[in-house]
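Re: duplicated header lines in exported structure tokens

Our pipeline writes sequence and tokens for each protein into one text file. With two proteins the header for the second block appears twice in some exports. Here is an export where it did not happen, for reference. First protein block:
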Amino acid sequence: MKKKVLSVIMASAMSLSLLAGCGSTPAATETPADNTAATETPAAETKTEEAAPAAETASGEVTNINVYRCTFNLATPDTAQVQKVQDAINAYIADKIPVQITLTDIGSGEYTEKANLALANNEINLLWTASWEGTIGTNDLYPAGAVYDLTDLIAGTPLYGSMAEGQWEAAKYDGKIYFVPVYKDNVEGYDFMFRQDLVDQHNWDINSVKELKDLEPMLADAKADGLKYPFLTQKTAMFYRWYIDKFDFFTADSSTNFFAVDRAKDEVVDTIQTPEYLEFCKLMADWADKGYISEDDFTKVTTDTTTQTQDWAISWWTDIPVNDEADARYGQDVTMVPATDRWAHSTSALGSCYCVTANSTEAQAKACVDFLGLLYTDSTLADMYTFGIEGEDFTYDANHQVTQTSDKYNHSMWESANATIVTPLDNEPANKADLYDAFNGGANTSSAAGFRFDKSPVEAQYTACAGVFESYGFPLENGGIPAADVESTIEKYQAALDEAGYQDVLAEFQNQYNAWKASK
């Protein structure tokens, strides 16, 4: 059985006004941030004291860097324990690299706002971020000129050699390296997810399921059983997931899934006008009419914990190398069957990454590269940075796998360091590194991998179009429109998009993509 856990917590977004001050302009020229925004909550942010001296270079210089990271596993980082971890890291790396770190740990609920403020005040050298982050995400930082060009600094370093060249290629913006991906499940694919007890009860042949319509006999069984959610969409618009074999949805956002690269044509198209979109929306409407999809999904009554109940039969899952982790998340035995291929594309490699801020000096940027190079290749450092202090925050079992024991310092591999170097947890396969290599190595590479859309020329229209999605796209993709009205609703959807400026954005997408292809 293939099973998995996905634990992604989105940081809260705020205005881009502060981010505009994150460029390489000296701090003295920055516009001071609003002091009210700078008020800190000690329980949610932990900023440690300056680092201890390290081994010096031949020139006698040791460089201190300010590192900001986000805490997902704990609601409140512990100040004293983060200080201990920082001190232990600095002691360990002191005779290895001429770098010391000052570590700041911020709770996920406040990370976006507080890290953005610190960026505006030039207080960060090394920042954890992601393509899906709001305000300080990769697609925000690069256009704002807030990140350091690492292309020349990284070449030939242990950091560059820590992962395959394809990972670096997928992470590039305009042909240059600004972000350092965390090597994890850096490709994207989706699974059908089944409750195993129902598979056993009905003797479902789940391996015969190749596409959505193949689920229908099983959904009929689930409805006959009286289940509330035979097909649980998890209140998610899924066109841009179920159809990634046909389209590269390079915006990585369901609310703008009306722009995509048609893989067969290698052209940017209006997906709303494709036969695939009509097919999908009609199927969802038909299933809703038959009672297979509940109105709770398209009215957003279902919650993130609905999957932990026995009220559903079949849902979806984002594929990862160790799908067995899903059982713990859902509190029941679930089984996965692939619904799509896996794809490496422009956003998949940057689901977790680091960047060096543009305000950093060359010495600080080099120190960041040196630190990441050691973090990505030294298991002792990677474990310390991820799990904390051995004996206090975690222990190694007889198989030298990690048991996490702390409510003071607790991070995960996916937001810390490479899967090939962080020691597996005691509930993970011992050959986790091999599984990740096989998982990423078995993916297709999108023809659009490396393309980044700059929406600034049409930002107002783009934002307006995204707003239209909620009124039309979301209900269409969650069975909220009667089957008889799907085609007319799609026509209204397109008309509303056009009124919002869709054709301007589509033309800009097409022009940029064609120019990018010509430059390759």
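Second protein block, exported in the same file:
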Amino acid sequence: MRVARLIITGRVQGVGFRYFVERTAARHGLAGWVRNRMDGSVEAVAAGEAVAVEAMIADCRRGPSTARVDSLQVIESAEAELSARQPGQNFSVLPIAILR
């Protein structure tokens, strides 16, 4: 299993990006979560087969037609990152993250 944390910047809030990520993750059979961050970026954690995670990363680099992705940072993560997921769901859209 591969777990990747993504930080996506650009015009990625207010354009349906989180729901695009949620649908993309479901299509690839991934678990995890996605949320907006206070700095205007979107953060996601995706876990599953390595090939499926890589396919999701490629999809997120393009994003939905309403978005503009300026950068996508991939950080290999630990399975503990999945703990923010809501029980009973494979992939969750979470409330906005407060950066410290």
